[in-house]
Structure prediction request, 183 residues.
Amino acid sequence: MRIERGMPQEAARTWSWGKTITLGIVGGLIAGVVMMIGEMIQAIVLGDPALAPASMIAAILLGPQVIGTLTLPVLATGIVWHLILSSIFGVIFAAAVATWPLLRQSATNTIIAGVVYGTLVWLVNFYVIGLTVGWTWFAATTNPVAQFIVHAFFFGLPLGWYLSTKVPAAAAVAPEERRREAA
Prediction:
């Protein structure tokens, strides 16, 4: 049964963390692909190779020496890691939407929350986690305005839009479902 926004409470009772996680993964992948396209456009506009963002992402796993290296192993690592991270961030946001009724009260709320979330993902990743663990190249070598636009509108907005079409306003994981799945 497909649960639509605004369906009766009985339909929402079938909602589960499994559905939330699945929607988060799918939404994260969709938003991750849109974001990668935005990053590539941004790179070209700023005079860098289109695939340069993938090498920066690969540097998280392979080290900063691969930044600017456009070989297949480096690019594949960057793209796969970007999609994994996008899925994880998608699940986190989907869990927030499923948990807090205000975020799913309307499509507009979900989309605006997605834009705010995309912005927070950028700020935390670049300026808190990145600087703490030594990934200084993100904050030091990227354009903050371009990164805000890409994270907010090429990641957060599509993620919010996708979840606004999939998570019904009445959906919430019931307390007994939370206890059962935690056991």
In short: DSSP finds nine helices and no strands in the chain. Residues 109 and 126 are 26 Å apart (CA to CA). Residues 9-182 form one domain. Residues 1-8 have pLDDT under 50 and may be disordered.
